[in-house]
Every structure is written in C-alpha cells, then in structure tokens.
C-alpha cells in the first residue's frame, strides 16, 4: 500500500499506532537499562521521580485547632456563689401586728419549690406571720406544720414569690467530716465553718452561734440543716426537714380532697 494513498483518518491512526509502539519499546528499554545500571544511577533516577511528585502534588497545610478547657471554679468562687444563693433565701419572720422596722421574731430559710419557709420550732412563733425577703418584699404566711425541732410556714397559692435558686436537701449520711459549711445570719453577715460531727441529734459544726432558724449550706449552695440556736453549732439535719415537708404536702393534699372549697379572698 502506497502511503500517499492513505486518507487523513488513516494517517492519524497510523501515527497513534507508531507512537504507542514506540512508547512501549522505550519503556521496555528503560527498564532493561535500569536493571543493568549501577545502583548509583538507580538512586539518582528515583530521587528525581520523588522530587517531581513532591513538586506536582505539594502537601496541604495542616490546621491545628487548640481547644482550651474552662478553668474549674476556685474555692473563693464556690464560697461566694453559695453565700449569694443562701443570702437570697434567708428571710425574717414577723408577727402580723409587728413592724418590720423592729427586731424580727425569727429567722427562716425560703424553699422556693415547696413555697414554704423553714425555721426552728419555738413557742414564740405565731400561727399567722409576715415574711420579709432580702429585697424588702413582704408576704403573709401560715404555720402549716411543726414538730419538736422545726416549723414550716406556707404561702397562699396566689402569692407571687421571688425567683431564687432552689436548694437540694443534703442527707446527713452524705456529709463528710471537715466539709465546708456556710451560713448567713439574720443581719446579712456571713460565716463559715466545717462539719465537726454527725449524730442522731443533728449536724454539729464549728459555725459560731448564728441564731435559731438560720440555714447552713455546702459549697454547692445546697441545704445542710437548720440552726437550733445551740451554742455548740448544732443544726437540725436536712433529713428531718425533708420528712416534715413530705408530711406537710400529704396533709395539704388530704385536706384539699376531703374539704369542700370555700370562696375566700386571698390574704
């Protein structure tokens, strides 16, 4: 066949075929030469290939993200936070015919979820009383239940009460000797101490006399107990308070179920 008689398409295909055969032959020849070449030549060729690959495909930059964990609260932060929470819950109890500018009849601890105030039992506690919150707000209350150590005052269902942190009640069995306890006196002053002993009588602390009815809290702001006013720093455990609150709730439910509803104006 005369090459001059080939069409353009046939010439193109012929060119591709010759190129393909030539490339295969070149590859075979190169491999054969490398197998016969000294090691130095082989290493040089490999280095050239590696550098060529690195140049064509550079590695992408690696982004390192550093995360900083939040610092744990210091002891001072825990103390100030717990005292601030308890200060908002420390209230003064007055008789209904008594001015709030005079000395309070008793000190109590406001329990938001129970809508109640807990204080130490005493003969001077009135059946009807006025509660003064730290911001000066006053609300009427009724003595709903008491035992030989504690008294519970309850607010009316329609009363609008301050929104403050609700404390957990710390069981006496969960307390540890040497654990920090904090208290706010009726005049707003703060004091700190530790748990000295836990007995069936209550929780003994190194807190000075803070006044009957004052609540003691741990570093989480949770309620450890209610002060008896004993000079030895004795507090009625939160277990006793919990049992009295349950009894109060049960009595209120039973009364509401068995007693007909009577329309009356809110106090």
Could you explain the architecture of this structure?
- The protein has 267 residues and is of the alpha+beta class.
- It has a domain of 171 residues: Beta Barrel (Thrombin, subunit H), CATH 2.40.10.
- 31% of the residues lie in helices and 25% in strands.
- It is built from 4 helices and 12 strands; from the N terminus they run H-H-H-E-E-E-E-E-E-E-E-E-E-E-E-H.
- The protein has a 6-stranded antiparallel beta barrel.
- The chain is rod-shaped, with a radius of gyration of 42 Å.
Sheet with most strands: strand arrangement: 1-2-3-6-5-4
Strand content: 25-35%
The overall strand count is 12
As a percent range, the share of helical residues equals 25-40%
* Reported CATH architecture of one domain: Beta Barrel
Give the overall shape.
rod-shaped
- Residue stretches low in confidence (pLDDT < 50, at least 5 long) are 253-267
Under CATH, the topology of one domain is which? Thrombin, subunit H
Query: Which structural class matches the secondary elements?
Result: alpha+beta
Arithmetic mean pLDDT:
83
Distance between the termini: 122 Å
Biggest sheet statistics: 6 strands, antiparallel, barrel
**SSE pattern, N- to C-terminal:** HHHEEEEEEEEEEEEH
For the record, what CATH class of one domain applies?
A: Mainly Beta
C-alpha Rg, in Å?
Answer: 42 Å
Total helical segments: 4
What attributes characterize this protein structure?
six-stranded antiparallel β-barrel, Thrombin, subunit H, six-stranded antiparallel beta barrel, alpha+beta, 12 strands, disordered C terminus, 267 residues
């Amino acid at each position: 066949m005369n090459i001059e008689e080939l069409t353009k398409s046939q010439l193109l295909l012929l060119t591709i075929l010759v190129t393909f055969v030539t490339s295969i032959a070149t590859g075979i020849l190169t491999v054969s030469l490398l197998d016969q070449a000294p090691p130095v030549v082989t290493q040089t060729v490999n280095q050239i290939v590696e550098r060529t690959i690195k140049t064509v495909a550079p590695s992408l930059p690696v982004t390192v993200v550093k995360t900083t964990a939040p610092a744990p609260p210091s002891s001072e932060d825990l103390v100030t936070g717990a005292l601030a929470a308890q200060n908002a819950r420390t209230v003064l109890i007055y008789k209904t015919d008594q001015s709030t500018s005079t000395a309070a009849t008793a000190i109590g601890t406001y329990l938001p979820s129970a809508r109640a105030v807990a204080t130490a039992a005493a003969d001077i506690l009135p059946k009807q009383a006025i509660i003064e919150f730290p911001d000066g707000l006053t609300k009427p209350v009724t003595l709903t239940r008491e035992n030989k150590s504690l008294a519970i005052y309850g607010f009316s269902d329609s009363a609008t009460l301050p929104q403050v942190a609700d404390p957990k009640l710390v069981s006496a069995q969960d307390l540890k000797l040497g654990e920090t306890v904090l208290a706010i006196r009726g005049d707003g002053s703060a004091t700190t101490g530790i748990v000295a002993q836990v007995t069936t009588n209550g929780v003994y602390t190194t807190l000075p006399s803070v006044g009957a009815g004052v609540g003691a809290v741990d570093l989480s702001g949770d309620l450890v107990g209610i002060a008896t006013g004993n000079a030895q720093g004795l507090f009625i455990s939160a277990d006793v308070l919990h049992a009295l609150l349950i009894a109060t709730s049960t009595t209120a439910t039973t009364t509401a179920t068995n007693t007909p509803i009577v329309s009356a104006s809110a106090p």
